[in-house]
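It would be a great kindness if you could assist me with a short task in structural biology. The matter concerns a single protein, recorded as an amino acid sequence and a row of backbone structure tokens. Could you please explain, in whatever detail you think fit, how the structure tokens follow from the sequence? Thank you for your consideration; the sequence and its tokens are set out here:
___
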Amino acid sequence: MTTLSHLECSMCAKRHEAGLAHNLCECGGPLLVRYDLEKARQNWSREWLMRAPSTMWRYAPVLPVAKPENIITLGEGFTPLVRAKRLGDRLGAKNLWVKDEGINPTGSFKARGLSCAVSMCAELGVKKIAIPSAGNAASASAAYAAAAGIECHIFMPQDVPQSNFIECKSFGAHVTLVDGLISDCGRIVGERKAAEGWFEVSTLKEPYRIEGKKTMGYEVAEQFQWNLPDVIFYPTGGGVGMIGMWKAFAEMETLGWIGPKRPKMIAVQVEGCQPVVRAFEKGEKRSEFFQNAHTVAAGLRVPKPLGDFLVLNAVRESGGTAIAVSDEEMMDAGVQLASDEGMFAAPEGAACVAALQKLLANGFLKADERMVIYNTGAGLKYLEAYATKFPRGGAGEGDKLGGLITPR
């Protein structure tokens, strides 16, 4: 099963023992899971995957769960990698692909991280978890906690998408809506967790969500026959997906599965909340808290990512960039992706389409590069946001006749 070795602080490199419920290092740094990759290399091969399950757990030797019976799975991972030829032709990208994470359980990539984190909670005997969330992580934590029989406490901004709130309540989670941002929700969890006996599963404040998300990197390599793309666009709120993929690429090279080539990593944010973009442009190692953060893309409204330095490292080491788009550009791009390719993406994924258009126009990217956009969620979870593009009953939408609406 797993080749888990130990945990290591991403800031001070202090070693921590595996098999215990850890949050942050004493220095405040996020912990990263390390494996005995030499052992994995000797006992595991790419050919083994031909017989593996079609979920993210096909990569079990480099995931942390020791006992198979502790794996809490709803079928997450191994999502489609779809060629976007019509959209690519429109934008001038000859080799454009979309990795569609909206197909995951609970409709987003968050299923990967929470499947792994909740599985480890089951393995380590954790009975209660708490999480602050902008929406999709809450849905996933509630679902996997329900499947595991673990008590789940969720804190979300009051204006969270309705789908997330209803999902969490349906899964039996204890939900608190907060008048504020995800940072305010996180503060409340931090203040109450000790007294309540909660194990905090906030982004990067435990080491295992990143392990589930890194499987997006393993999958894109496998789906391209172990040749990484030239460019990866990733919508960056907390940025854990990008951090995880960057970790996965390093692991795969050590395993001998890929070479040293890396994609240009493109961190995509929105103009109303762009802490990573500003830090990148200033050459800073960490971001500053982004004041008055606002956007219709709930997952991108993260004013101060805990792992910002790890995101910035990946962007810079890869020769990539960080870019912000407007809400209007993002929503227009989402409609364009849907009408060209039949893929209804979350606004976060749509932001990557708008970013692609900008980077082709300014010459940062070339038309013949193989590019992958990560759509991190299903558009159906963001109907309130998309409803602004299509108001019902407006002039020109149709004539109401006999209770029906007929197109003009």
